[in-house]
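Quick one before lunch.
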Amino acid sequence: MSKHKKNDLYNLLLGQLLSQDEGIDAELLSNSALTAIKFASLNRNFPIISNILSTASSDFQRNNTRLNQTIFGSQFKNPLGLAAGFDKNGVGAGLWSYFGFGFAELGTITWHAQKGNTKPRLFRIAKEKAALNRMGFNNEGAKKFSKTIEKQKLPPPRHRPCVLGINLGKSKITPLDEAHKDYALSLRLLAHLSDYAVINVSSPNTPGLRSLQETKQIKKLIRTLKDLSNCPPLLVKIAPDLSNEEIDEIARVSIENGIDGIIAINTSLNRFNLKNLKIQTGNTLEQENGGLSGLPLQERGLEVMRRLRSNTKNDLPLIGVGGICSARSAWERIAAGASLIQIYTGWIFEGPSLVPNILDGLTLQMEKHGFRNIKEAVGSEEPWK
Ligand SMILES: Cc1cc2nc3c(=O)[nH]c(=O)nc-3n(C[C@H](O)[C@H](O)[C@H](O)COP(=O)(O)O)c2cc1C
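Model of the flavin mononucleotide complex:
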């Protein structure tokens, strides 16, 4: 089947559903896709499945060595990753490379399994290429997660076709002052499976979680996790709603305490210019709880990236996420300082062809600017041509 036909098929099957806010529940749609992905990942070495996967992946993968980088001791085939929250339980860990991603961040995982908030808790806002979610870290817990990963028989960390990060959060039942112990229990169990781990202190849907971004709290968290004998490269993921001064402070404290990278940004409590927009519940965005993602985050994501880059003086790998939904926005985030970038909402709306579109766009920009490796573009502030 030709590439165009496949994209048409995607648009025909899902594009119609995704372009309307009403209709099939957004979470049900993602869960159905994940069921198929889980089956394919577990059975990816069976000849029939492996044939289907290699045919499909030829449309998405780009094997261009100019996009390679070694970061956190791992080789990234390209700088584009799947952001945390889509594969919360790691069921697709063996499959993300087939979609062309250079890396995927699994989770958020908490020590205790938890159901998350009541449904509906995920809403499409198609016209704005945005989504609102208040999932609340629904996940099967760290113990089940480790079994899920082991069952997929992946190569060990640093030898995988797709680098895998594990994003950790605090269990809802754990009091805030014991958060560090909760993260540590998860990390101790999962460290040997991770190429890198993320301290998520920025999701808006766990009460009090974002207060862990404060100086004393984040210091305690980083120190506790860094003290584990098997701690993998450790990153912190921050919120877009911090003030610029708070961003400077969290960068400073994180670096002082040995952090290996920063991910910016998580979903936002800000509604930007969409306060009065009504969603499926009949309420306006301003009246609904949850974090906004997608295109409305693009500008803030870029601004936070520039701020972090100027604070970290090119010393620390930064991962840019939030509102990236085209090759141009991907290039701009890299040029602003991101060594790696991630997508979530854009990938849902644009479909899997967004991955090769971004990778091809980055390659073309590198050619236009005379860069031999994507590393040279990081923080270059070279404009999109
Ligand atoms: C439905 C949904 C669930 C998410 N769950 C998580 C999560 O569990 N952990 C996390 O760190 N980020 C989570 N995120 C945030 C994304 O990883 C990303 O930071 C944010 O959506 C901005 O990127 P985007 O505009 O490309 O979607 C979630 C986002 C969405 C839309």
